[in-house]
Amino acid sequence: MFAGATADREDADYVVVGAPLDVSTSFQPGTRFGPDRVRQFARTFEDYDHRTDQSFSVLGVHDQGDVHAWDDTEEYLDYLRGTLTDVLWDDAVPLLVGGEHTVSVAGVRAVEPDVFVALDAHLDLRESYDGNPLSHSTVTRHALDIADEAYVVGARSGSDAEWARAREADVTVVEPSEAESWSPSLSGNVYLSVDVDAADPAFAPGTGTPEPGGLSSRTMRRLVRELAPAASAFDVVEVNDRDDGQAAVLGAKLLRDFVFAHADSG
Prior knowledge:
Number of strands: 10
Shape: globular
Radius of gyration: 16 Å
Helix content: 25-40%
Strand content: 15-25%
Strand order of the largest sheet: 4-1-5-10-9-6-7-8
Largest sheet: 8 strands, parallel
Distance between the termini: 25 Å
Mean pLDDT: 96
Number of helices: 8
Low-confidence stretches: none
């Protein structure tokens, strides 16, 4: 169970759902261990948040456990979307913990946001990768099948075709050098996705495709807190077991930051 998640399912305002999909990881596999790693390293945190004067354990968080993954990605995403839709129908906020970034496609399909915001080292605007149209490298493109616009914050890697696609009007790229001072001002329903590789590998080496020159953990925490009030759902993805817990502890802290800021806003 995620530390501090004390609410019963029927009383929950926030529902943690693990999605340990690990099918298309390009370099370092292990995202199947992500949900359990995030839960494990969340145990180190104090219950109280001094910024919002709240305790996590009284904010109505329920951990529903994992949706067991299998290798038919389209079928799995369909099932996961149904699970997340049930959370929304119960007037709760889904907190999805991956797993590879592909699981965010299920979240976006459930929420149907106006705006997709990803903290990510990669543009994820490919039509396919190695012939796979449901690769973790295609997430932002799939999100734009539903959302009117996408913001990719921390992006520093992509193919020439992806950078060309990112220059179109419905995509905004906030590169790492700009992210520290970027203040989001968004309208409409937001889906917030955090690929932990948005962080510099010095902060989160335990991820599939690390990219130097990334965001600091401090910047990521600020952005999540500022984006949370506008968001209807949150995910943190691409944590694996290839470090000593740095990526998992950052992912866990960002999830808690989201809950504290979202609850405080409303």
